[in-house]
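Hi again,

Forgot to attach this to my earlier email, sorry! This is the prediction with LLP bound. I've pasted everything inline since the attachment limit keeps bouncing my files.
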Amino acid sequence: MTTAPHPLAPEWLAARESTDDLEAKLFPADTARTTEGELTLGGIPVSELAASYGTPLYVVSENDFRARARGFREAFTAAFAPDTEVDVFYAGKAFLTTHAARWAAEEGLNIDTASGGELAITLAAGVEPARIGLHGNNKSDAEITRAVELGIGRIIADSVDEISRISAIASQLGRTAKVMLRLTPGVYASTHEYIATAHEDQKFGLSLTPVPGTQTEAANPYLGSPAWTAVEQALDTPGVELIGLHCHIGSQIFEPAGFELAAGKLIGFLARIGASRGVVLPELDLGGGHGIAYTEADHPRPPEDIAQALAAAVREACTEQGISIPRISIEPGRSIAGPAGVTLYTAGTTKDVVVQDGITRRYIAVDGGMADNARPVLYDADYSAVLADRRVTGEHILSRIVGKHCESGDIVVRNVYLPPAVTRGDILAVPATGAYCHSLSSNYNYLTRPAVVAVRDGQAQVLIRRETEEMMLARDTGYP
Ligand code: LLP
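Structure tokens for the complex follow:
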């Protein structure tokens, strides 16, 4: 029997007939079904994980996370060898716990932090300050002071004003801070598309476009741009060592074209600094944004492809500009943590809702929702799901997995084919939730935040404890 596509289903969604049809690219590599048909993560049946730690539960495969971290480092190192070295900074905003920071560091990665809080977790993990970068478009004096005192590997400066603040703080402490400049090269990329423009309208970074009314110079097209002003300031103020340029062009990018274009622009700027100021900055950071598969419709490229395309573009641009190839860094977050994570939910109420004459949609409510995965609400993100605790074969029906929050937009998976037998108490697994789910989670409706459990070779380890009502009430001063 073949399941006919449901009239409300998106075109890319294939009808399914068995819970055994696991889409491998969506799950951690060490995911399987037992002979009885139950899903196992890192060798542990989901029913065991749910019984031990409760649901919703964030499960992360340590082996998968580590393999992806290693994969990025090896692919980029190989692609740029023998010309230059590559540092991979894991973008902690995607998913950060002390264990995750240690996994990344043990696999040879540095850590990119975006706030004092992320810096604190990374330090608590024991990562050496020299292997940490600090981002932020509005860093506080306290954040800058801490970074300078620690002597962290790089502070990525986001404005002209920040450079004077770093200089003042470093001078006062008798230190020199290693600084990179975050530039906006006028390239925005998102999934398969990128757009290139001369102007930027966003809060991050320093534009390469001269501010209207400033003095121009034929030899230097950047004169009068915030980026150029920042370079002069960084080179001329005490307490600041300018080590290179940075850009981050977007998120969930599948094709290398946008990265290539941005690299070319930054290399042109690097060459101009060399020509005008006689200083060759040693480093170039091309940011993160490498895409992953959330549903069967996403087709990410292996890191080797992106690395080779980028290495070719960097070599070509450096040859053209007549400069030597700088040391390269990248900042992948989602592409390391995302596919390593799966969220387990327990199914509750189901409803068949008549949407149009003769067309119904099955709603399955689970015990979590937008507080543990804000991405569908924030970005209209699509996810996928499977019935995880048992095998069912036969016609699947179009279903929508929703949460238990007081919002009609509280959707976990907008469209998925699931067996009609899914019922209260069943465990549903939503893959590709390792990035930006735990880190964006909230307490909305005072739901307690889920535990994060790592699985590896049949062993489970709690990384983050489940929040309790006592923990929530501990912040409420009206509670005795
Ligand atoms: N580097 C910088 C400077 C960034 O701003 C970001 C992400 C990254 C690296 C890591 O990007 P990734 O490789 O993870 O795409 N909450 C959104 C994503 C926001 C990303 C912000 N910056 C989401 O859930 O899709």
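The first strand starts at residue 31 and ends at 33. The mean pLDDT is 96.

That should be everything now.

G.
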